[in-house]
Amino acid sequence: MLDLNGLTKTYKTGDRAVNDVSLSVPKGQIVGLIGPSGAGKSSLIRCINRLVEPTAGRITLAGTELTGLGPRALRRQRRRIGMIFQEYALVERLTVMENVLSGRLGYVSFWQSFTRRFPPADIARAYALLDRVGLLDHADKRADALSGGQRQRVGIARALAQDPELLLVDEPTASLDPKTSRQIMRLLTEICAERDLPAIVNIHDVALARQFLPRIVGLRAGQVVFDGTPADLTDIALTRIYGDEDWDAMRRAEAEDEAETREALAARDAMVLA
Ligand SMILES: Nc1ncnc2c1ncn2[C@@H]1O[C@H](COP(=O)(O)OP(=O)(O)OP(=O)(O)O)[C@@H](O)[C@H]1O
Fold it and tell me: Where in the numbering of this chain does the ABC transporter domain appear (predicted)?
């Protein structure tokens, strides 16, 4: 479905953020992209829809090569790729419904988009999507009146309104609390399964990636150094991805989080029992 072949990105500064990455993602598969800060996860994701222009290599989506397309053809192809962002990228003063409909902008004429007159089929589809992400009752609220988790649900519905063939997801839970993060990851995995949609999710939380994603790709210094299941992601594999120091620090942080959660639960139980 999605094929990356020797994908490379060297920025003008000389930083080689993505280095000869080859990867295939079949229909319906959701892949987690992990790696230390600066490993090239965002650059890789953004190269796929050419928000970042690759320096070398090929990107093929269902048989169409995206590298080398001119601006018009690229605009048309980008409709096939839905993007979900860490900071949601909603238009805050517009309603939830208007934000979801903005996913259709690539399909309607300039005048339709200028006057925000969308075809009835688009509106019906937007309602169905809001229902799917659990926000039907919030359709007329302004985006800035929503919680972080609700905003991310709008981001997901907007990406789906595009009717995409691929989802690119950049740190979808980085601004959310642990419980909401799990809800969002569950929603994403369910939606990909329902629609047979492939997805690449840039995710810094290894525990969350392990819990929800059947395939994990580890990047280090722009190169794929791991590609396997959560069960394959052993301490040795994690050390290969993060290096000794970072992996130990992550393990300590995870242990501290666990201890904090345990303490908070114990305190709550003590209050209930008192
Ligand atoms: N616009 C840019 N110009 C120059 N160098 C860049 C640019 N964007 C990223 N880089 C460099 O490319 C490398 C990879 O960065 P990237 O943001 O893709 O990594 P990342 O794995 O997503 O990191 P993080 O998890 O911290 O977001 C880094 O060395 C970074 O400094």
Answer: 2-246
